[in-house]
Amino acid sequence: MSKVLCSVATRGRYFTTLPLVLNAIINQTKPVDKLVIFDDNDEPKDMRTEMIYSYFFKMMDIKGIAWEWLYAGKKGQHHIHQMANSMGYEWVWRVDDDAIPEPNVLENLYKHIDPSVGAVGGSILTPPYIPSTIASTGFIDKIDSEPNIQWGIIEKPRYIEHLHCSFLYRAGIHDFNLGLSRVAHREETLFTYGLYQKFYYILAVPDAITWHMKNPEGGIRSETKEEMYHHDEQIFRNVLSFRDKNIVVLNCGLGDHIVFSKILPSIKNPVVFSCYPEVVPGKSIAEAQHLFGDIDQWNIYKKMDQWKWTDSLENAYRKLYL
Amino acid sequence: MIIISPYAKKLICGKENPKNYAYWKELIALIDEPIIQVGVEGEEQLVDDFRKNLPISELRKLLKECRIWIGCDSFFQHLAWDEGKQGIALWSVSDPLIFGHAENINLLGSRDNLVKNQFLWWENVEHKSEFFVSPEMVLERLY
Questions:
Q1: Secondary structure of B89-131 in the HEC alphabet?
Q2: What is the pTM of this model?
Q3: pLDDT tens readout for residues A279-299
Q4: Which chain B residue's Cα is nearest to A278?
Q5: Residue A203: which region, alpha, beta or left (left: phi > 0; alpha: psi -120 to 50)?
C-alpha cells in the first residue's frame, strides 16, 4: 500500500482554523502515514507548550501517526509544497490551514488512485454559497468561463485537467513553480495541470467534502500586493499559451546540449530555449525565465539528483521530455 | 593523427578541475604519432600543435581526420560520440555510466573514487592524481 504524507502550510491561524484542520486530519478513517505542519508564521511558536496542541501531538502518538513541525522559510506556500513533494512519499495529501476535511476524505480520494492517476480532489465547499458545478468541465481552457468543479457537490468521478486548494497528488513527478511570487497565485492549478501535461489523469471525485472556511485572518496568501498577483497571473497565462507545445529548456553545459540533440527529433512540437543555439537552436534562457518564472523543472541535473539517477544522461533526457 | 582534449571547463573557484587527467605529459611522451591538442585560450599547451577556440564545425572536421582521440570528461567526448568517432575517455570522479558513452573506451581508476552526488558542482571536489589510470594503461588501449 502506498504511503501518504499529509502536508499543511500554516500562517496566522494557530488559534482559529488550524486546530480544526489538525483534528480533522487526525480523525480520518484512513490515517495518514505522516503529518508535516509547515509553520510559516512571522513569529513562530513552540506549540508543544500550548495545551490544545500538546493533545494533538499526544493523539497522533497514540494513533501511530508520525508527525513533524517544520519552521518554513516565509517564501510562499509553493516552496513549502515543493518540500513536501520531494520528501520521498509516493502520495501527498495537501490540506489548507482553513480547509476542514470530512473524516472520509482521504479514504475516498485514495480509492481512486492507480498507476495512471496524478491527482485526486473532492468538493471544496465554502458555505453559504455552494454553486452547482454539474455543467463544469474542469478543462483548463474553460478556467475563465465556468465555476471550478470543486466548488460544488461532485456526483460522480470526472476526468478533469486541474485542481485547487486541497487534493491528493502523486509526489515527485512534477515540481511546483518556484518562480511565482510569495502569494503563489495559481500555484495549485499550475501544479495539477503540469501533472496532466505529463499524461497523468486528474480526477474530481464524489464523497470527499472539505469545508473551506476562507478565514479572512492569516493564511498563507495574506499578502495584498497587487503586482504579485499580476506577476503570477502572467506566468500562468504564458504556460497556458504554450500548452500545445513541449517546452524544452537547456540551461546546462555544451556537452549536455550535444547529448540532448539526439533525442530532439523524437519530441513532438518542441519549443526550445537553449544556452548554445549553435548546437541546439532555440530562444534564450532569459526568455524562458521571463515566460515561466521557474525553469528548474527542466534542470536535468536537478532532475537526475531527484531521481537518484544511475542510467545515462541521454536516457535522463528521454525521461524528462519523452 | 591523434587529437587530445586535455581539460574540462575551468572552475570558478580557480582550483584544478578534478576531471582533468593528471598525467598528460607522461602520456604524450609515450606516444609516437602526430598529436593535435584542442582546447581554449588559457589552457596549458602540451604539444606543438595547439588549436585554440575552434568552432564546433572545425572540431568536427578534425575528428573526421583523426585516427582516435583522447580526452577527459568534457564536452569533447560528447562531440566525438555525436560525430561517431571512437576515442579514449579518462575518468576520475564522475561516472562514465552516466556521463560517458559505451561506444568509447572509458578508463576509470576505480568506482570507489566516484563522488557520491554526481549532479552537483565540481567546485568542492579535490583533484587527485591517483584517481586516474596510469599513462601505460592508456597506451595499452591506444595501440
A1: EEECCCCHHHHCCCCCEEEECCHHHCCCCCCCCCCCCCCCHHH
A2: 0.85
A3: 999 999 999 999 999 899 899
A4: B56
A5: beta
Three-state DSSP at A238 gives helix
C-alpha cell at A162: 486541474
Residue A128: pLDDT band by 50, 70, 90 thresholds? confident
Give the C-alpha separation, A251 to A249, whole Å.
Answer: 6
Q: What is the predicted ipTM?
A: 0.95
**By the CB < 8 Å criterion, does A258 face chain B?**
yes
Contact A169, A118 (CB under 8 A): yes
Which amino acid belongs to residue A295?
Answer: I
Find out whether A113 and A2 touch, Cβ atoms under 8 Å: yes
Instruction: Give the domain ranges of chain B.
Output: 2-142
User: Does 3.90.550.10 match the CATH number of domain A4-224?
Assistant: yes
- Please report, for residues A37, A103, B28, B136, the alpha-carbon distance to residue B68 in angstroms, rounded to integers and kept in the order given: 58, 68, 14, 17
Contact B99 A302 (CB under 8 A): no
Could A255 and B77 be called an inter-chain contact, meaning their C-beta atoms sit closer than 8 Å?
yes
DSSP state of A179: T
What residues contact residue A250 under an 8 Å CB cut-off, 6+ apart? A256, A257, A260, A272, A273, A274, A275, A276, A280, A282, A285, A298
What are the residues whose beta carbons fall under 8 Å from the beta carbon of B75, sequence distance 6 or more?
A253, A254, A255, A258, B9
Top-level class of domain B2-142: alpha beta
Alpha helix stretches (DSSP H) within chain A: 18-26, 51-63, 77-85, 105-110, 187-197, 226-241, 254-261, 285-292, 300-307, 313-321
Cell 572540431 belongs to B59
| Number of CB atoms found within 10 A of residue A113's CB | 20
Report how far residue B63's alpha carbon sits from residue B2's, in angstroms, rounded to the nearest whole number.
Answer: 9
CA triple B83-B88-B90, angle to 5 deg:
120
Cβ within 8 Å of residue A114, ≥6 positions away: none
Contact B119 A278 (CB under 8 A): no
Query: What are the residues whose beta carbons fall under 8 Å from the beta carbon of B65, sequence distance 6 or more?
Result: B1
- Inter-chain contacts counted by CB atoms under 8 A, chains A and B: 47
User: pLDDT tens track of chain B, all 143 residues?
Assistant: 999 999 999 999 999 999 999 999 999 999 999 999 999 999 999 999 999 999 999 999 999 999 999 999 999 999 999 999 999 999 999 999 999 999 999 999 999 999 999 999 899 999 999 999 999 999 999 98
* Test mutation, B53, B75, B115, chain A, max A CBs within 10 A: B75
Burial classification of residue A279, based on how many CB atoms lie within 10 Å of its CB (0-12 exposed, 13-18 middle, 19 or more buried): buried
Domains of chain A: which residue ranges? 4-224, 244-321
Task: Tell me which chain A residues have a C-beta less than 8 angstroms from the C-beta of B55.
Answer: 278
